[in-house]
């Protein structure tokens, strides 16, 4: 008997499988996103079969996935493509008999036990190739018995096993054990494009990730108040965009030089309304840029009640300047702790908490109005030439193309 197996990846689609007539469109987008995401690692054959995707190195002699660390990196990249429930590294081998399956299942068990001190297991089996003479439950029972004989220290637990050996019998045969969770959602590119107001904080990168997970392509705008905020604050925002782009694909980041506008507001509008006037201008500039870039909505990281500018009155008064598109606030009902959990899971948290001030912390009033009314804003903006300020903001924009760093 030979020991010739190849490591391949099996990924499982999620919500797309529930789509009706449109399903084909979602699947094609997912496949195209997957090809794009894996390009940096090498050439792969990516094949869809029902609600599953099989990924293998194009060159049958390639050892691309045989190094464990590289294989894990590729697997992680696979799970970052929205639309998948989970993915596994799978050993593929050519075999015809139950003894072939046992051999590889035992090898896999040895491999697992060399890294983990597991005591219980179970075997699950699927048979796609109906010419194989045993049914799935028999295959599972036979393989389980072989493992028990080889490992006296193990016992079977069908409810809460320490590990599972999965066996699949198709044209080829497969064994695997771990499933890495995917990020679910829908493939980016199936829901239009949105303009994310991206600050250096925790919330907005998560908000962008969440909209991308609904299939939305992203552009982003950052309001930079140099030198009140440092160059490093801008670098941090670029880093955050790069982290989000691992999931969303390339992000065009528009940087609006906000300093002169803010100084103007600082001079010409009342202190307690500063946050609101500033946010209204930000939204107007963002909307203008969004229109130019054919984005169909704005996206922010606002969450109800989190700070003074996120009361319902403050949100309404900022919202009303945006006339031509919806403003999506995916975190509006999300608890901060939950947002931090998502931030950690997507790998943004460590960057988000780096202490470079964003513009709102430099120019904040000591006692902002938490329940601003229409009359307050009319009064606050009476001395401002809003149109000119918006034009100034839009004209000064610099745009950067942000792509994930290879293997980042
Ligand atoms: P974040 O953690 O995203 O910074 P936050 O809790 O600090 O959010 P605010 O600072 O009030 O809340 O900002 C609310 C939202 O406004 C942010 O989530 C972001 O979408 C947008 N925003 C705030 N500051 C900027 C900025 N300098 N550039 C671009 N967008 C910004
Ligand atoms: Mg902030």
Give the helix/strand layout.
Blueprint: E1 5-13, H1 23-38, E2 44-49, E3 52-57, H2 68-79, E4 84-93, H3 98-113, E5 120-127, H4 136-150, E6 155-156, E7 163-169, E8 173-176, E9 180-184, E10 193-197, H5 203-212, E11 217-224, H6 231-248, E12 251-257, H7 259-268, H8 274-292, E13 298-299, H9 312-319, E14 327-328, H10 336-345, H11 349-352, H12 359-362, H13 374-380, H14 386-395, E15 398-402
Parallel strand pairs: 5-6, 5-7, 10-11, 10-13, 11-12, 13-14
Antiparallel strand pairs: 1-3, 1-4, 2-3, 4-8, 4-9, 7-8, 12-15
Helix pairs in contact: 3-4, 5-6, 8-9, 8-14
The structure holds adenosine-5'-triphosphate (ATP) and magnesium ion.
Structure description:
By secondary structure, the protein is an alpha/beta fold. The chain has two domains: 6-183, VC0802-like; 193-402, HUPs (Rossmann fold). 39% of the residues lie in helices and 21% in strands. Strands 1, 2, 3, 4, 5, 6, 7, 8 and 9 form a nine-stranded mixed beta sheet that branches. It has a six-stranded mixed beta sheet with strand order 14-13-10-11-12-15, with helices on both faces. Helix 3 crosses helix 4 (136-150) and helix 5 (203-212) runs parallel beside helix 6. The protein starts with a strand and ends in a 6-residue tail after the last strand. The model has no long low-confidence stretch (mean pLDDT 93). The protein binds adenosine-5'-triphosphate and magnesium ion (MG). Adenosine-5'-triphosphate binds at residues 197-199, 201-204, 221-223, 300-302, 306-307, 309, 358-360.
């Amino acid at each position: 008997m030979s020991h010739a197996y190849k490591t391949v990846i099996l990924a499982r689609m999620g919500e797309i499988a529930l789509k009706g007539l449109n399903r084909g469109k979602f699947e094609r987008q997912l496949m195209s996103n997957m090809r794009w995401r894996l390009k940096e690692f090498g050439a792969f054959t990516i094949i869809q079969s029902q609600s599953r995707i099989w990924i293998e190195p194009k060159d049958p002699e390639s050892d691309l996935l045989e190094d464990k660390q590289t294989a894990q990196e590729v697997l992680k990249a696979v799970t970052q493509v929205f639309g998948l429930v989970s993915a596994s590294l799978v050993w593929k081998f050519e075999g015809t008999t139950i003894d072939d399956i046992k051999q590889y299942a035992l090898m896999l068990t040895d491999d697992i036990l060399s890294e983990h001190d597991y005591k219980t297991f179970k075997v699950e089996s699927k048979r796609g190739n109906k010419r194989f003479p045993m049914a799935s439950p028999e295959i599972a029972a036979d393989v389980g018995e072989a493992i028990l004989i080889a490992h006296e220290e193990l016992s079977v637990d069908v409810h809460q096993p320490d590990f599972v050996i999965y066996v699949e019998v198709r044209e080829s045969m497969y064994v695997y054990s771990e499933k890495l969770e995917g990020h679910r959602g829908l493939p980016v590119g199936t829901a239009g494009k949105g303009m994310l107001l991206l600050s250096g904080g925790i919330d907005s990168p998560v908000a962008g990730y969440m909209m991308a997970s609904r299939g939305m392509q992203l552009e982003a705008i950052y309001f930079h108040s140099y030198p009140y905020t440092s160059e490093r604050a801008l670098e941090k925002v670029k880093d955050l965009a790069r982290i989000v782009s691992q999931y969303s694909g390339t992000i065009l980041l528009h940087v609006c030089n906000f300093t002169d506008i803010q100084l103007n507001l600082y001079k010409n509008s009342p202190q307690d309304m500063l946050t609101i006037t500033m946010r209204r201008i930000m939204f107007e500039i963002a909307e203008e840029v969004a229109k130019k870039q054919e984005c169909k909505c704005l996206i922010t990281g606002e969450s109800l009640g989190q700070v003074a500018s996120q009361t319902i009155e403050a949100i309404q008064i900022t919202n009303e300047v945006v006339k031509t598109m919806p403003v999506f606030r995916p975190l509006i009902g999300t608890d901060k702790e939950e947002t931090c959990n998502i931030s950690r899971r997507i790998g943004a948290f460590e960057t988000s908490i780096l202490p470079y001030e964003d513009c709102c912390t430099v120019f904040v009033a000591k006692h902002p109005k938490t329940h601003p009314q229409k009359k307050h804003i009319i009064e606050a903006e009476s001395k401002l030439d809003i149109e000119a300020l918006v034009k100034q903001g839009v004209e000064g924009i610099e745009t950067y193309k942000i792509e994930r760093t290879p293997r980042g």
